[in-house]
């Protein structure tokens, strides 16, 4: 599929119960695929793959922490198609969405994600995030916009990693991009210098 995506979808609901949150994790992980088969999808968080026991322990700690805790069940759907991102890209996209929630002034005490690439018409992510307050309508709208932008960014990163795979490591690719940015900035500086000269500054 070519062309930019036209929309993204964020669905959200929450519970105050750690027990219900654990039930949501089980549902996210084991929901049947399109063939009706029960699955055992990997759970992941900011620091990589997690066991279900690790997730449960983190949810319990979040529930017992100071202040209120809201266990948000979030579905992030980029809108169209399948297999645009590999698993690494999907996990990075989930982490960016959670970081956006924190940038909105909300504390995310812990979170866990699951990729669904075998259920429904679109690849999507389920994320359960333990937050310090509720998410407002304008914040959810912001997540939709931000999700569309960051999904496109992850697609571009994945494409470039494929194009530049002969360069070796991701670090080498980053250095290449830094060189390209420096070159572009130098050209912009030279254009500004010429403009100032023409204007008599």
Q: What can you tell me about this protein's structure?
A:
With 201 residues, the protein is of the alpha+beta class. The chain has two domains: 155 residues, 2-Layer Sandwich (BirA Bifunctional Protein, domain 2), CATH 3.30.930; 34 residues. Helices cover 50% and strands 19% of the residues. The protein has five helices and six strands, in the order βαββαβαββαα. The strands form two sheets. Strands 1-4-6-5 form a four-stranded antiparallel sheet, with helices on both faces. The protein is globular, with a radius of gyration of 21 Å.
Uncertain runs:
1-6, 163-174
Give the SSE order as H and E letters: EHEEHEHEEHH
- How far from one another are the termini? 50 Å
Radius of gyration: 21 Å
Summarize, please.
With 201 residues, the chain is an alpha+beta fold. It has helices at residues 18-30, 52-64, 87-103, 137-163, 170-199; strands at 9-15, 43-45, 48-50, 70-77, 108-116, 124-131.
Please specify the SSE layout and strand pairing.
Blueprint: E1 9-15, H1 18-30, E2 43-45, E3 48-50, H2 52-64, E4 70-77, H3 87-103, E5 108-116, E6 124-131, H4 137-163, H5 170-199
Antiparallel strand pairs: 1-4, 2-3, 4-6, 5-6
Helix pairs in contact: 1-2, 3-4
List keywords for this structure.
201 residues, four-stranded antiparallel sheet, two-stranded antiparallel sheet, single chain, alpha+beta, disordered N terminus, BirA Bifunctional Protein, domain 2, globular, 2 domains
């Amino acid at each position: 599929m070519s062309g930019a995506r036209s929309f993204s979808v964020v669905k959200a609901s929450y519970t105050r119960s750690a027990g219900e949150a654990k039930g949501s994790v089980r549902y996210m992980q084991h929901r049947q695929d399109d063939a009706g088969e029960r699955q055992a999808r990997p759970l992941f968080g900011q620091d990589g793959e997690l066991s279900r026991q690790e997730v449960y322990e983190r949810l319990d700690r979040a529930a017992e922490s100071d202040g209120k805790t809201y266990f948000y069940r979030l579905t992030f759907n980029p809108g169209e198609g399948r297999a645009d991102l590999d698993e690494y890209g999907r996990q990075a996209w989930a982490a960016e969405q959670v970081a956006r929630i924190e940038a909105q002034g909300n504390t995310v005490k812990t979170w866990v994600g699951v990729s669904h690439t075998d259920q429904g018409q679109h690849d999507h992510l389920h994320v359960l995030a333990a937050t310090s307050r509720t998410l407002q309508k304008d914040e959810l709208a912001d997540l939709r916009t931000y999700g569309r932008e960051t999904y496109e960014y992850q697609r571009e990163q994945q494409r470039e990693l494929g194009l530049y795979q002969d360069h070796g490591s991701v670090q080498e690719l980053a250095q290449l991009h830094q060189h390209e940015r420096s070159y572009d900035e130098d050209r912009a500086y030279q254009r500004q210098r010429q403009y100032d000269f023409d204007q008599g500054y």
